[in-house]
Amino acid sequence: MGHDFAYPPVDFETHPDRYKHWKLSVDGPVATLVMAVAEDGGMWPGRYELKLNSYDLGVDIELADAVQRLRFEHPEVRVVQITGGLDAKIFCAGANIRMLSMAPHAFKVNFCKFTNETRTSIEDATDHSGQHYVAALNGTASGGGYELALACEKIWLIDDGNAAVSLPEVPLLGVLPGTGGLTRITDKRRIRRDMADVFCTKAEGFRARDALKHDFIDAAWPRSQWEEGTARAAVDLAAEITDTLPLKKDGPGVALPALERDDTDDGWSYRFVDVVLDHDNGDRVATVTIKGPPSDGADADPVRGADTWCLRAFRELDDALLRLRVNHLGVGLILLRAEGDRDAILAHEAAMLRGADDDWFWREVQLFVARTLRRVDNTSKTFFAIIDEGSAFVGTLLELALAADRQYMFLDDDGENSVLLSEANEGVFPMASGISRLEARFPGDRDAIEAVVEVEGEIDAETCEELGLVTLSLDDIDWEDEVRIAIEERVSLSPDALTGMEQNLRFGGGETCETKIYGRLSAWQNWIFQRPNAVGDRGALSMFGHPERPIFDFNRT
Amino acid sequence: MAHIDYDERIPNNVDLAHDRRLKKALEKWQPAYLDWWKGVGPQVFKGNDIYLRTAISTEAGGWANFGYVKMPDYRWGIFLADREEDRTIPAGDHAGQPVWQEVPGEYRNVLKRIIVVQADTEPASVEQQRWLAATAPSLYDARNLFQVNVEEGRHLWAMVYLLHAYFGRDGRAEADELLARRAGDDDKPRILDAFNQPCQDWLTFHCFTCFTDRDGKYQLGALAESAFDPLSRTCRFMLTEEAHHLFVGESGLERIMRRAAQLEREAPNGDPRELGGIDLQTIQKYVNYWFTYSIDLFGSEVSTNAADYFASGLKGRWREAKDHDEHSALHQQKTIEYVEDGRVVGREVPLRNAMNEILREDYASDCDRVVKRWNKALEEEGSDFRMVLPSTKFHRRQGIYADHHFNPAGELISADEWESKRDSWLPTESDRQYVHSLMKPVYEPGKFANYIAAPRRGIHGQPVEFEYVRTDG
Ligand SMILES: [Fe+2]
Ligand SMILES: [Fe+2]
Question: What single DSSP character describes residue B350?
Fold first, then answer.
């Protein structure tokens, strides 16, 4: 098996004009995403075929793009139907097994993480943007296909005596339905535990009658009534949603232009974000600098459009994170820096948050920033915020520092270097656990949080350390050395242990469906992905599609 | 903040006057150090003139300037052996690469720990010995005690310099802790056990200085081979001073032995105790005790820490660069004797894991040479008694022999045999009481307590009867 082959760099940007695998159409309040995966359109040409609407990362990048664009470019859409576009009686067969079994471990993990993030973004759109997703399963949805359906608000299945929903990972592949499947059937669809157990070990799954009976789907229509039934249900649902929308959502939308990325010798840069790889540290450290809005527009309200600073900068940050994750596996530590005009940042942020009350666009920007920050939380790399002289960690950008594992702050003589809290730090960008980063920082310590929130105005380095807002504040005597040593020390530790440690420490507080997907389901899946029973020479994943049967080591660990 | 004229007050070769980081750290630490010295340093002759040597530079002779000084005014300096150009890492995985002038982040915590453990012993012995001068057998001996004390104080400075200069805020906090711990304190004891017992008699002092300080010599020797160059240079300079401490201990014991041999001849039935001396058997018991107590400080015979320190270049072997050709110590084995089913069996372990044991062996052969010199002295004095260095398996409280009983010859014995013979091998309570009963001060220049012979020579060319401590102020 080609576990170690070096895959080509992945580009996360795309546009509906370039989709290979999806067709997006909009008809008034109902949009339809038709999945018709091109068999020969895989990311690594010639290595596997994307048969039976199975997907790879490329397919999911298009889906993520579509979900994102629908929110910004089609505010009038209330219902998004996902349906199959193959003639075969199949909606989607899930992740491509050939691709998975040949992918290096890190790629598998990143693939699963990205697809999970796409599915949580679908739920985010449903919950917060009034764009409800419906899985219109016009054929069998198995494995990742059914998990995609589970991410939707409603699941409709064609009742043709053939189509089924199933999670065959355990019985067929010796792995888990790791794209949220196991979590959502219990925590979202609240399916009885023993029935869930039966379902997850029954490779062929349930057809419409049983699936409906046990709540694995919400509705079914026979083939003859399928088109009409689903269409009417979609329109009805759209009307229902319109009635309950908290704010007016109509066109025109705001088109999202492509990001402009310049590759440099040491990394790459966008308009507001730079990525610099540190060659001195064997490329194990990258510095990501995010810059504030141009200061000349500081007093004016920010422009309502795709180029507005906050949206642009966080789209760039999002792209940078994804590229670092997938294309720069060796980077273990990301140093976060923030620069720019503090007043301009705060003015921009205030306008955004004010606008979010009654303007869907600003509301989407806020939700997008929140998603990007959650992307930081979920990134299996260390983050240190470097709050150096001239830094601009205020409000929204301070939230980025709070997302980091540690914060190092320069202590200057005159107290000019400071951070500033705003309402941006009080829960408008919640973590996956539903709480703010301040709450996660001080688990269960209301007093500490209040002490921080009560401070009026700028907080200098000394006070930051007292309040517990930074890990260390260091004067010019210590700064350079301490930061250097902290970096060197960090990148000398086991990357696996660090990933596990960080993912535990970042999520103080309670669990949600989302945190369980990343913290429980993914962790188990990643363990299984390393085990001989899955990926050994005779493991189930390796043997899939081969004439021989897998051979298991039956000892439980 | 008190203004300090650094170069004058603190002799140094680290350009202290121009190092803001150090100055800032010392502004706070230096007064705390003086308080510490006054509080738990020597409590006798605190403000008297003492004839001491002071290191004021690393040039030939510069490290040994003699003159009267009141101890609190002693100029504790910061000296590193001169930097060797192109020095390379002597041992471990990085052997042959350039040494580190800065602490690599990867090793920060473990290096800091190594330095702190070493540093903690320096003030500890000063605390243990703080009342000892009240029973000094002579002014010459009192002066030697004080010389050792001020230099242990300087060793603390040397280690604190490393903490201040290279370990940032954590280092400063550790430096403060070094002044906060106290030998024998229930709540804040010194790190190593051997440094928590009070030192109340001069036989113990000389044993401690001969055997326990010698452990320090070998630890410093291993650190002198460190990849972290400032540590290596610091330890190399400390070693020059340590030689005098070992001299104090070895010659002190030798003088007690000579006196014992003389009294043996003079006493009617050959027992020096009758004439107020210490008999050679008792001295042997103290040697047995302190030798074995000190070898426990080297750590476990087989140790992953020791292997890690060696592999990462933090420590080398004794005279690694000079005495060894192969510096990786990989793919080699060392035989360690284990006790299995009531027998001693040799087992091969990877050489790197046996580094503690290797250093202990080097130490033991050094002690062996000392014992040979004592026996020569005993021969000169016409005594038939010969001192014997016990086996490194005897009377161990740490390591793989700790749960077994060995006689001084290194033979495995039963618990019963141990119980019946231990009083003939180790000091008993009545031995200790007897030794204590002899502790009376002798403060007249040139006079010595009856249990210890006068030295052959004075200090730095001065006569033996020189007033090494001015008792009148
Ligand atoms: Fe010392
Ligand atoms: Fe010493």
Answer: E
- The Cα A82–Cα A70 span in angstroms is 13
Angstrom distance (rounded) from CA A253 to CA A73: 4
Residue A87: the pLDDT is 79
pTM of the model: 0.88
Strand boundaries in A488-528, DSSP class E: none
Backbone angles phi, psi at A276, to 5 degrees: -125, 120
Distance from CA of B69 to the nearest CA of A (A): 35
Three-state DSSP state, A339: strand
B422-436: pLDDT as tens digits:
999 999 999 999 999
Average pLDDT over residues B208-217: 96
| B62 contacts B126 by C-beta, under 8 angstroms | no
Residue A391, strand partner residues? A339
Q: How far is B106 from chain A (nearest CA, A)?
A: 4
Structure token digits, residue B196: 């928590």
Q: Do the beta carbons of residue A211 and residue A164 sit within 8 Å?
A: yes
Cβ–Cβ under 8 Å, residues A541 and A171: no
Q: How far apart, in whole angstroms, are the C-alpha atoms of residue B4 and residue B230?
A: 24
- A334 Cβ contact partners less than 8 Å away, ≥ 6 residues apart: A285, A286, A287, A288, A324, A379, A381, A382, A383, A384
DSSP, residue by residue, A213-279: HTTS-SEEEEHHHHHHHHHHHHHHHHHHHHHH-SS---S-----PPPP-EE-SSEEE-SSEEEEEEG
Question: Cβ of B8: how many Cβ atoms within 10 Å?
Answer: 9
Q: Taking each helix axis from N to C terminus, what angle separates A342-355 and A309-327, rounded to the nearest 10 degrees?
A: 100
* Residue A34, phi then psi, degrees to nearest 5: -100, 125
Whether A417 and A388 have beta carbons less than 8 Å apart is answered as yes
Residue with token string 């503090």? A342
Delineate the domains of chain A, giving CATH numbers in brackets.
Answer: 16-243 (3.90.226.10), 262-499 (3.90.226.10)
Distances from the Cα of A396 to the Cα of A340, A424, B309, angstroms: 13, 5, 45
Cα B135 from Cα B427, distance rounded (Å):
20
What does the pLDDT read at residue B473? 65
* Among B19, B26, B101, B103, the residue to mutate for chain A (most A Cβ within 10 A): B103
Q: Looking at this predicted complex, what is its ipTM? A: 0.80
State the maximum Cα–Cα separation within chain A, in Å, rounded to a whole number: 78
Q: Give the gyration radius of chain A's Cα atoms.
A: 24
Mean pLDDT across A36-54: 94
Token pair listed for B55: 């290191």
Q: Which domains does chain B have, with CATH numbers?
A: 16-437 (1.10.620.20)
B119: CA distance to ligand 1 center in Å? 8
Cβ pair B394, B406 in contact under 8 A: yes
How many C-beta neighbours within 10 Å does residue B420 have?
A: 11
Of B18, B100, B108, B228, which to mutate for an interface test with A (greatest number of A Cβ within 10 Å)? B108
| CB < 8 Å to B24, chain A | 477
Amino acid at A335: L
